[in-house]
Design goal:
This protein has about 700 residues and is an alpha+beta fold. The chain contains 15 helices and 28 strands. The strands form seven sheets. A seven-stranded mixed sheet has the order 3-5-1-14-11-12-13, with helices on both faces. It has a five-stranded mixed sheet with strand order 9-17-16-15-10, sandwiched between helices. It has a five-stranded mixed sheet with strand order 18-19-24-25-28, sandwiched between helices. α8 packs parallel to α15 and α11 packs parallel to α12. The protein is globular, with a radius of gyration of 26 Å.
C-alpha cells in the first residue's frame, strides 16, 4: 500500500488479491453452514407448452434424496415484478430450459442424479424462435432498456438521405451473446426463526434483498444477503436470477441450508443474454464528409415472459452531428429466454454497426476515417441539445493515432501481403453514458488511527474495496493503509448495484461525503475520541440522482491490426490499442485492467463468440465453454490501454466516469474495419469465423 496522504489515482494493489489467489476468498457456494444440502434443477426440454406429468418416484428412491420440488410442492411465491423469477409456480413452459422441478439431496452428485431421474411429459405447442428483419409480429416499443424512447427523429432524415451527394445504406447482424462469468450463478440459502439468509453471487445485494422480501412476503429486515466475493457478472448478475429463488424455496421446504449452483449449460437460458440485433444504417453526406442524414434502425427479440429491448440505436443519438436523424427500434416477442444486460448493453452492438458504417462512408468518400469522425464532431449532444460536461473524443483519436502509428497507414485495402496473410488496420470510436445512483455510507474514526468505511458495495472483480479505500484516504487526508473497507452485506448501509459502470461513481460519492463530514467533526472535537470511535454517515439521495443540465458520457478510440489467412479464412488480431477519456482515473492499475478486460471481451465478440438457437428444440446451441468460444491467452494479442487527463467538474466529488464497459464498445468495429482494410472485403455479420471470411 502507498503511504502518501492522498492515494487517489495511484496504482494501488487490490486488497483481496492474495485472498483470491490463495483460495481464502469465500464465494457464494463455498459457505458450508451445518446441515447444508444441495439442489439441482430440472430444465424443460421443449420450447413451449406445459408440463402434463412429473414422475419423481425414481428420483425419490435414490439414497440421500430429500425432496423433488414441483409446482405442487414448492410452495407459493408472491407476485413477482420480474416474471422470470416466478419459478415452480405453475405448469407452463415459456421456453427451453425453464425450471420444471428441483431435486434436493445430501450431496451434489446425488442431487444431479436425482434431477436426471425425474420423468417429465409435456404438451408441446408450436414455437417461433427465429428473428428476421421483417417479422410480422415485430412492433415499435415505447421505451427501450434504460428508459430511452424507442424512436427519436430530427428533421427530415429520409429526404436528406435521398438528396445526399454520398450515401451508404448497409445492414449488419450481431448474434446472441452470453455473459459466461467464471463463477456460475449460485447461492446458499437458509431459514432460521423466520429469517432468510442467502449468500448469493450477485452484483447487488440490496436489490436481491428487496426482491426476496417481496417474493416470500417478508419485511426486508428479515432477509439478509451476503455477496462478499463475486467471480464476474458482466450484467448477468445485475438483478436476482432464478437460482437464488430456487435455493430459498428448497431451504424452506426441507428446513435445511440449501446450496445451488447453476450448471454452466443452463446459464444461457436462465440468467439473460445479449439479444441478437439486426441493424440497418443509412448515412448521407456531402463530398467533404459532413453528415446530412443519419438513420439507424434496429430489430431485436425479447421473450414472451418479459419485455427487454436492447437499446442499440441509442448511441447514434450521441455520437455525430447531422442535419437530420432517425434512430428507432423494433422488437418481436419469441419463445426464447428473456434477454438482459451484457457488458455495455446497447452501446456494444449499436456502436459496432454505426462505427462500421462510418468506416464504409470514409472508404466511399476516399477520406481518412479519423478525419471523417473529427469533421462531424457535434458542439452539443445531438439528441438533447445539452452541452457535454466534457467530450474529448477527438483527443482520444489523435492520441491513439500517434501511439498506434496511424500516419504510416497505407489507406488502400487488400495490398499488404506476407505469404497467405493479408494485414490491415482499423479504428472505431466508443462512448458510454455516465450513470450515478444514490448510496449510503458510514465512516468511523478509531482512537488507534484506523478509519473503517462501511457500504454495501459489491466487488465483482473490479477492485471496489481498494478504490473506495483510496477515495476515503483522499477525503480524509491519510494514507490508504489507514483505511479499512467493509462491503458485500445487507447489514451495511444501502448502496447501488455494481452495474452500468456506475458502481464507483455512486459509492465513492457517498464515501467521500461521509469522510469529509468526519473531517469537519474531528476538527471541532474537543478531547480524545471515544473508545468506540466517532461515526459519521452520508446519504446521497437527492444529490447523486439529481438531473444534470449536462450530457455526461465517457468517450474513447479503439485501434486494431488484424491479419487474415487467405487460405483458411482465419483472422488473427495482432494489436489492440485503446485511448479513453473517462474523467479522473482513481486507480491506474485497476483501471487498466478494466479497459483491457473490456477489449478482450470485444475481441471475442468480433472473432469467436456467437450464440444460436436450434429451430427444432428452441435450445441455445453451444451453451458451455466448449461450444461457446471465448478468447484464450493464445488469442489475445498485445493490448495497450491508455487514457487522457480529463477534468470534469460536473460528475461527482471524485470527477470520475465509469470505466468497466467502455473498453468493449468500439473494439469489434475496429477489428471488423481492420479486416476490411486487410482484405478489401466487407463482412457484416459477427463473429468473423473462418467459415464466414472468404477472400
Amino acid at each position: 500500500m502507498g503511504a502518501t496522504p492522498s492515494a487517489l489515482g495511484a496504482s494501488v494493489e487490490r486488497r483481496e488479491g492474495r485472498a483470491k489467489v490463495t483460495g481464502a476468498a469465500t464465494y457464494a457456494t463455498e459457505y458450508a453452514p451445518p446441515g447444508r444440502v444441495h439442489a439441482w434443477p430440472v430444465p424443460a426440454t421443449v420450447a413451449r407448452g406445459k408440463v402434463v406429468s412429473l414422475d419423481t418416484s425414481a428420483a425419490l428412491a435414490l439414497p440421500g434424496v430429500l425432496a423433488v420440488l414441483t409446482p405442487d410442492s414448492a410452495g407459493p411465491l408472491a407476485d413477482a415484478d420480474d416474471p422470470t423469477l416466478a419459478v415452480l409456480q405453475d405448469s407452463r413452459v415459456p421456453h427451453h430450459g425453464w425450471p420444471v422441478a428441483l431435486a434436493v439431496a445430501e450431496t451434489l452428485e446425488t442431487a444431479r442424479a436425482a434431477a436426471g431421474a425425474v420423468r417429465v411429459q409435456y404438451a408441446s405447442e408450436p414455437h417461433d424462435i427465429t428473428l428476421t428483419p421483417d417479422h410480422p409480429e415485430a412492433y415499435c416499443p415505447d421505451e427501450v432498456n434504460g428508459g430511452h424512447p424507442g424512436e427519436r427523429r430530427q428533421g427530415d432524415p429520409e429526404g436528406a438521405f435521398a438528396d445526399a451527394a454520398v450515401r451508404v445504406d448497409v445492414s449488419y447482424a450481431v448474434p446472441p451473446l452470453h455473459n459466461h462469468p467464471m463463477e456460475p450463478h449460485g447461492a446458499t440459502a437458509m431459514w432460521q426463526d423466520g429469517v432468510l439468509t442467502v449468500f448469493d453471487s450477485s452484483q447487488g445485494g440490496d436489490t436481491v434483498r428487496a426482491v426476496l422480501a417481496k417474493l416470500f412476503s417478508l419485511p426486508e429486515e428479515r432477509v439478509n444477503v451476503v455477496c462478499e466475493h463475486v467471480g464476474g457478472g458482466f450484467g448477468s448478475k445485475g438483478t436476482p436470477r432464478p437460482h437464488v429463488v430456487l435455493a430459498a424455496l428448497a431451504a424452506r421446504h426441507v428446513d435445511r441450508p440449501v446450496q445451488l449452483s447453476l450448471p454452466r449449460r443452463e446459464l444461457t437460458e436462465l440468467v439473460g443474454h445479449r439479444a441478437p440485433t439486426l441493424h440497418r444504417v443509412r448515412l448521407g453526406a456531402r463530398p467533404d464528409g459532413t453528415l446530412t442524414s443519419l438513420i439507424h434502425e434496429v430489430t431485436t427479440h425479447t421473450s414472451r415472459i418479459k419485455e427487454f429491448v436492447e437499446q442499440a440505436a441509442v448511441p447514434a443519438r450521441v455520437m455525430y452531428a447531422s442535419g437530420s436523424s432517425r434512430t428507432s427500434h423494433r422488437v418481436v416477442a419469441l419463445d426464447v429466454p428473456t434477454p438482459s444486460w451484457m457488458r455495455a448493453p446497447g452501446e456494444t452492438p449499436g456502436m459496432y454497426a454505426l462505427e462500421s458504417a462510418v468506416d464504409e462512408l470514409a472508404c466511399t468518400l476516399g477520406m481518412d476515417p479519423i478525419d471523417l469522425r473529427v469533421c462531424n464532431e457535434p458542439p452539443v449532444e445531438p439528441d438533447s441539445g445539452r452541452a457535454f460536461s466534457s467530450r474529448h473524443l477527438v483527443e482520444c483519436l489523435r492520441e491513439g493515432a500517434a501511439r498506434f502509428g496511424w500516419e504510416e497507414r497505407d489507406p488502400r485495402p487488400g495490398v499488404r501481403r506476407s505469404g497467405p496473410w493479408l494485414t490491415g488496420t482499423g479504428v472505431a470510436a466508443a462512448t458510454y453514458p455516465v450513470l450515478i445512483s444514490p448510496s449510503r455510507a458510514t465512516v468511523t474514526a478509531h482512537p488507534d488511527g484506523l478509519y473503517v468505511v462501511r457500504i454495501n458495495a459489491t466487488d465483482i472483480g473490479t477492485g471496489a474495496r481498494t478504490v473506495l479505500a483510496q477515495v476515503a484516504a483522499g477525503a480524509l487526508g491519510v494514507g490508504v493503509e489507514s483505511v479499512r473497507t467493509e462491503i458485500g452485506s445487507t447489514g451495511l448501509p444501502r448502496a447501488a448495484l455494481a452495474g452500468g459502470s456506475a458502481g464507483t461513481a455512486s459509492w465513492g460519492w457517498a464515501v467521500d461525503e461521509a469522510c469529509r463530514s468526519l473531517v469537519r467533526q474531528l476538527a471541532e472535537l474537543r478531547g480524545p475520541l471515544p473508545p468506540g470511535g466517532l461515526t459519521v454517515s452520508a446519504d446521497t439521495e437527492g444529490t447523486a440522482d439529481a438531473e444534470s443540465p449536462y450530457a455526461r458520457h465517457a468517450f474513447g478510440a479503439h485501434f486494431a491490426e488484424a491479419a487474415v489467412d487467405t487460405d483458411t479464412g482465419e483472422v488473427r488480431v495482432r494489436r489492440l490499442l485503446g485511448v479513453y477519456a473517462a474523467g479522473r482515473i482513481l486507480n491506474a492499475r485497476t483501471a487498466r485492467s478494466q479497459f483491457i478486460g473490456g477489449m478482450v471481451m470485444g475481441l471475442g465478440m468480433a472473432l469467436t463468440e456467437g450464440g444460436a438457437v436450434d429451430p427444432a428444440s428452441g435450445a441455445f446451441i453451444g451453451s458451455d465453454l466448449a461450444g461457446y468460444h471465448v478468447p484464450t491467452h493464445a488469442d489475445v494479442p498485445a493490448i495497450e490501454a491508455h487514457w487522457i487527463d480529463e477534468e470534469d467538474p460536473h460528475l461527482n466529488p471524485m470527477g470520475s466516469k465509469g470505466i468497466g464497459e467502455i473498453g468493449i464498445v468500439g473494439t469489434a468495429a475496429a477489428i471488423g474495419n481492420a479486416v476490411y482494410h486487410a482484405t478489401g472485403v466487407r463482412f457484416r455479420e459477427l463473429p468473423l469465423t473462418p467459415d464466414r471470411v472468404h477472400v
